[in-house]
Design brief:
6 helices, 173 residues, mainly alpha
Length: 173
């Protein structure tokens, strides 16, 4: 990748990601918070793509951004009053900044205090997406399908539980 294009892309994606994360944590409207969460996930996917981790970028966009969008649609369909609900926040910015600064100092001290190994040559020990697909649909087919069934059961269970809770809410009104 061209150096200038890479730099500009990185900084644009970094700003989008950080601002979206900030908006998610400070947004009082749940609908807008989830929309910013999707932008956050897309920004992370873009950063993975810039690091030439195309598979992780694809998984990030499909699983996280796509799943959050579908989850958001389920929330709107199953609980229609959630979209209008406002979250009351008690912001203690001083304590938040102090905790964030302490956490940043801890992370930097851990990162700077570790010896970092030399990177391997490009292409050494890497597998292609085709090889990964062959492994998932060949040797690891049974675990792959079991995970799919578990996720399907969890989704059906969530819909059943939400349906029961919606029925209880209607009786109280």
């Amino acid at each position: 990748m061209d150096g200038l294009f890479y730099q500009i892309s990185f900084w644009v994606l970094a700003v989008i990601t950080v601002l979206s994360a900030l908006m998610v944590t400070t947004m009082q409207n749940l609908t807008r918070g989830v929309i910013f969460l999707v932008f956050f996930f897309l920004g992370i996917g873009g950063l993975y793509f810039l690091m030439q981790a195309e598979f992780l970028a694809l998984v990030q966009v499909v699983v996280y951004a796509g799943a959050v969008a579908v989850l958001f649609a389920f929330v709107i369909m199953l609980t229609p009053r959630v979209a209008e609900r406002e979250i009351k926040q008690s912001l203690n910015l001083g304590a938040g900044f102090i905790l964030a600064a302490l956490f940043l100092a801890l992370v930097l001290s851990l990162l700077l205090g570790q010896p970092w190994p030399e990177l391997a040559a490009p292409g050494a020990g890497t597998i292609t997406l085709g090889q990964l697909g062959q492994a998932l649909l060949g040797e690891y087919l049974l675990p792959f399908e079991l995970v799919s069934v578990v996720l399907l059961v969890a989704l059906v269970g969530a819909v059943v539980i939400a349906g029961r809770n919606a029925g209880r809410g209607e009786r109280k009104s």
